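Researcher: Can you fold this with S-adenosylmethionine in place?
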Amino acid sequence: MTPAARWAAAAAVLDQIEAGEPAEKALTTWARKSRFAGSKDRAAIRDHVYDILRCWRSTAALGGGTSGRARVLGRLRQTGQDPATVFIGEGYALDPLSDEELAAGHAPDGAEALDLPDWIQGIFVNDLADKAEATAEALRHRAQVFLRVNLLTTDRNSAQTALQAEGVETAPHPLSDTALEVTEGARRVSQTEAFRTGLVELQDVASQAVVDALPLKDGMRCLDYCAGGGGKTLALAARLRGPVEAHDADPRRMSDLPDRALRAGASVRLVDRPKGPYDLVLCDVPCSGSGSWRRAPEGKWRLTPDRLAALTQTQAGILDRVAGLVGLGGALAYATCSVLNCENEAQIDGFLSRHPGWVCTKQTRFGLDQGGDGFFVAVLTRT
Ligand SMILES: C[S@@+](CC[C@H](N)C(=O)[O-])C[C@H]1O[C@@H](n2cnc3c(N)ncnc32)[C@H](O)[C@@H]1O
């Protein structure tokens, strides 16, 4: 496909998303109908779509409309590319722009320029103060690719050498001693022998730092209560060098975890009904995902005040339930990939006011300015 044809395909996918289709589904449907597209085409189209999803409001403002065509025009203007090289009307390219389309569009302002929903801009300013703008700006750009070195099978230097031999260049990242930032060959990672044999896992650096912050001790009984795909379960098992139990309200989300654990040489047991007492329970709760909107930008546009309120209730409910699983002297670790106070510090304050006999021994925010996604972790101890 020509570069112009890829933009035309992106415009078609964006129209489906505008009509309410999830981005992944719209991309898959397009790929099924377009067998002529190769893997490089599909990757380029996906990049266009996600770049625009991150900048959904500003591209619409600059392009003068919410159609895929207008958003592509907005994105080209935003990145200083000449629309005349894309709207060429030949082959599979988009039709040339009309005079009306050329005259449309305005420079985005305020929340539009920061690509935030209006209702959340005030919350950002209130919660993040002088970091609000920089955080919103960081969420408008692609995230770096990070790997977690699996300490059960290798060390960071050896993993780096193995990846380099397969054309993947990496650099250690200061936020976690298990983290490598991929500087070249990111698309090749999942095909490498190093990945297939469990030397490394794809995992954001701040997500790794959350696990580093947990009070781990040899032989402790440990539960990951919201295990999902198991990213943190595996990191925990590697740090602990021992077994970890994994639970999720939706067990289907853990369906790949046994295979992933096998590949990583980690001991993970899936539990339907956890029975305490545990020495450590990690709750990586469902949240707005506002710290990782650059990886999952649709979440930014789908979040509503009602949905956020429902999420904070779920989070408080999980904390209250899980408290009963932690033994005396044990710890409850609460984590989110959110930058919002109502899902972070306010949840901890609420828990402490409902549960006398618990103290908060650690509370850390990882900001996007530290390189990874925005994360929060608190450690609560039962005294
Ligand atoms: C943020 S995700 C977990 C991500 C995972 N820890 C990781 O690192 O890959 C939150 C998980 O919580 C699960 N969940 C939602 N409500 C829950 C509940 N009431 N109890 C337990 N898990 C719940 C969801 O199914 C989802 O898999």
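Model: Folded with S-adenosylmethionine in place. The longest strand covers residues 326-336.
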